[in-house]
Write a structure and sequence with these properties.
Radius of gyration: 15 Å
Pfam families: SoxD
Strand order of the largest sheet: 3-4-5-6
Protein name: Sarcosine oxidase subunit delta
CATH class: Alpha Beta
Number of helices: 2
InterPro entries: SoxD, SoxD_sf
Order of helices and strands: EEEHEEEH
Oligomer: single chain
GO molecular function, one term: sarcosine oxidase activity
CATH superfamily: Folate-binding superfamily
CATH architecture: 2-Layer Sandwich
Strand content: 25-35%
Length: about 110
């Protein structure tokens, strides 16, 4: 079972208190995008074995969205952070790198 900390209200709870919202840090395309760009946004999601950055909502609490870095194999949560950020905080990146040597994350924009 996952234990997550909501960075918005500070509540620590089991995953049943939260609702998963898919991959974090997706690049969204506006009305002028091509069909291929829109297709990739909708359907080409990462589903890694290992470290994954995800969106979560505190469904049974404050109701706000936040982001979490976790390992899909070990179920370890490296940290949670605000949904308004464009990339994970450096402390979470450092924690991931310490636990999973050689892991690299994509460039966020």
């Amino acid at each position: 079972m996952l234990i997550l900390d909501c960075p918005c209200c500070g509540v620590r709870g089991e995953e049943t208190e939260f609702a998963a919202g898919g991959e974090a840090h997706l690049k969204r395309f506006g009305p002028g995008s091509t069909d291929d760009q829109f297709h990739d946004y909708l359907f080409m999601k990462e589903n890694p074995k290992g470290v994954h950055l995800e969106r979560w909502r505190h469904a049974n609490g404050c109701g706000k969205w936040f982001l979490a870095a976790r390992n899909t194999v070990t179920m370890e949560v490296y940290g949670t952070y605000s949904a308004q950020t464009t990339e994970p905080p450096q402390e979470i990146k450092d924690k991931i790198s310490a636990k999973v040597p050689g892991w690299s994350w994509r460039e966020f924009s």
